[in-house]
Fold this protein.
Amino acid sequence: MPFLDYVLQTPSYGWKDPAGALVKPTSGQILKEFFLRLNLFRTRKNWLPVFSWLKVICLSVFFAMFLIYYLSWWTLLAAFVYGMIIMGTHGTIWHHRYCTHGAYKFRNGFWRFITQNLTINVIPEEIYVISHHVHHSKSDQPGDPYNAQAGFLYCFLADVNHQPIAKDLSEGDYSRVRSLMKHTGVKANTYAQYQQWGSYVNPYKAILSWILNWGFWYGAFYLLGGNALVFSLFGAAGFWAVGVRTFNYDGHAKGQDKQREGTDYNQNDKSINQLWPGLVAGEWHNNHHLYPKSARSGFKPHQVDLAWYYIRMMSWLGAVTEYRDNKKQFYEHYYLPYKKANLNQKL
């Protein structure tokens, strides 16, 4: 059995039925699985999903305080820019293009650390990276941890129900997880620690990193704009933390066939290019599924790609030593042939 078939913890309702078709659990089944996996009394190995959602709950308090006490035209603007653009673009730069796909390389650990901590810490790298490899291997097929065809809730709660790594991997298979995560700089548990905690990252180190990151940004925002800025931007991070859980459902057309000729060239799954995620976070998703290892996914002139601009800037500064850019291949194999065929049809 291929490694990516079993590296993730299988939900109680399974990935597919005996005939091989996608299992589409009811909302009740999804919620039952969600709360079961957040039960620390059942097993300490549930700690990472609990930790991930604890951060969301904490950020929701900031968001509520922002709305009640600090809402004004300038704090709303700051929150919009931070939550919609900065947080989204950083997720593309760090979690997506670097941690998962290795689309570029840093000169050293210092620049990697700076990039990792450019924003408020929200998503555990481990939950994102391993599951995203599976997503690309099984896009819109049974086993895809956020298969949009199974519904909104299936995707929205995927970070708990479908994305954590399996808790019973062999030592050899755990080494393969470590190899997929090694370049991220997140220090790994030993195999004995993995057996104890059920995760790649150690809880004590994850919690310390969280405290230091939030402490730094709390202080920086306070010095720049007092509590008004603190609660605005931490609240915006909370809004993003919830909103990002809806992305793959929308980015794969809610499980429907919505691809447009001349816009979406990858037809191996249901991914689509969307204007808003593209403009604010560089997530031209269909392009990305064509060339997942490309550091740029905004290939066409109108496809603004802020994540790519950051990577190019870091390359200019010498902080990034190499990157992949598949724009040329996109034009040669997809865009120009499409334009030529269209022109011939008109003639």
User: Anything to note?
Assistant: The first strand starts at residue 104 and ends at 106. Strands lie at 104-106, 320-323. The mean pLDDT is 96.
